[in-house]
Amino acid sequence: MNEESLNCMTTKYRVESIDAMRGLAIIFMVLDHARIYFGYGTIFTDPTDLASVPSYIYIFKMIGRFGAPTFMFLTGIGIFFRGRRFDKRQLSRFLLIRAAWLIFIEIFVITFAWTFDIHYETIWLQVIWAIGWCLFAMSILIYLPKRVILIIGLSLTIGHHVLDGITAQGTSLLDLIWYTLHQPRSLSLTPDFSLFFMYPILPWIGVMSLGYVAGDLFKQGISPEVRKRWLIILGLSLIIAFFVLRSIQFYFRIKNNGPLYDSTFLTFLEMFNTRKAPPSMLYLFMTMGPALLFIASIEQCKNRFTDFLATIGRVPFFFYVLHLFLIHSFAFLGLAYAGRNLHEFILNKAAWETLTLASHGFNFGVVILISIGVIAILYPICKWYGDYKARHREKWWLSYL
């Protein structure tokens, strides 16, 4: 999440249109993560199973899915703008260092934020891990012509499905590489240590590559009207493609297997339940289409709402790390007040599954209030940190936080 490079855009509204989109994705992410710790659904309940969870849990999960594609794509744009300030060798070096830093943070800091397990019995390799490896790939791809990067981006984003049939089962080095690239996998290496490869990176490299190419739309000399028109065309095209292709899928699915649910509303919601790991083409169409339209809609819009979103969106990595610790800490306080210990349930699936949906968690309104509370606490901290970074550009290490 290369915020610093985005701040070098030549006009302020361009920065805020992108940062505001990222800020909105962060808010959606907070709702989903608050749902995990405080809603009737739990980490071990499938939030996309409409037959067993309330529809609001499913909706929270769906809107939370905007986060990863948005961060990947906008990081690509950020790389483009940093590349306009530095030569390719300097840019590649920055990306390599930042990649290693993000991978380290994912393993040792973010895993702990999710689990509060000082023994690190399970390492969850999630979105920050994936961004790190994508930055590593981009440190090489930036040396290629833009047209080649575009072809690679489209091929990985749309064409990675041809690899779906390739699966690994073991724990060899090649197997681990394949889990990192394209196959989500939970792996028990010892009785006391597991790895969970949650974000296969191959399609995400494609998304970040497309973001890098899309940086040309935001460079100096491109009029806001032209940029807005292209964003609308691309956004609408992705949305239309999603509904057409998904409707065809659903037609044959229902024709062969019968109605999915008795409720038309639940059947409609199920349309948005596309594969996230690795991200399917339809999943990326479903999320990136509205994201591009949102950026277009606020292209020249500046008000309190966009300022609020942009303040959060300027420091997404900083917000991401803090919000996990804050939400998890709140959950501990809540369960301690109820006479329970969340740590037991996070690490012991059997113990968690003894809880019923009726005996654990809160309703929709409480989850919303907790999300608002987390954002309200972190907003002034993010504002202070964003201002501090802007005033101290000479401090190179700030670009890694």
In short:
The protein has helices at residues 3-6, 12-38, 55-64, 67-83, 88-115, 127-141, 146-159, 173-181, 202-214, 224-257, 264-270, 281-297, 304-313, 316-337, 342-347, 349-353, 364-391; strands at residues 122-125, 185-190, 193-197. With 401 residues, it is mainly alpha-helical.
Structural summary, described in words:
The structure is a single chain. The chain has helices at 3-6, 12-38, 55-64, 67-83, 88-115, 127-141, 146-159, 173-181, 202-214, 224-257, 264-270, 281-297, 304-313, 316-337, 342-347, 349-353, 364-391, and strands at 122-125, 185-190, 193-197. It has 401 residues and is mainly alpha-helical. The protein has one domain (3-400). Strands 1-3-2 form a three-stranded mixed beta sheet. A hairpin with a 2-residue loop joins strand 2 and strand 3 (193-197). Helix 2 (12-38) packs antiparallel against helix 17 (364-391) and helix 10 (224-257) runs antiparallel to helix 12. It is globular, with a radius of gyration of 21 Å. Mean pLDDT is 85; it is low at 1-14 and 349-359.
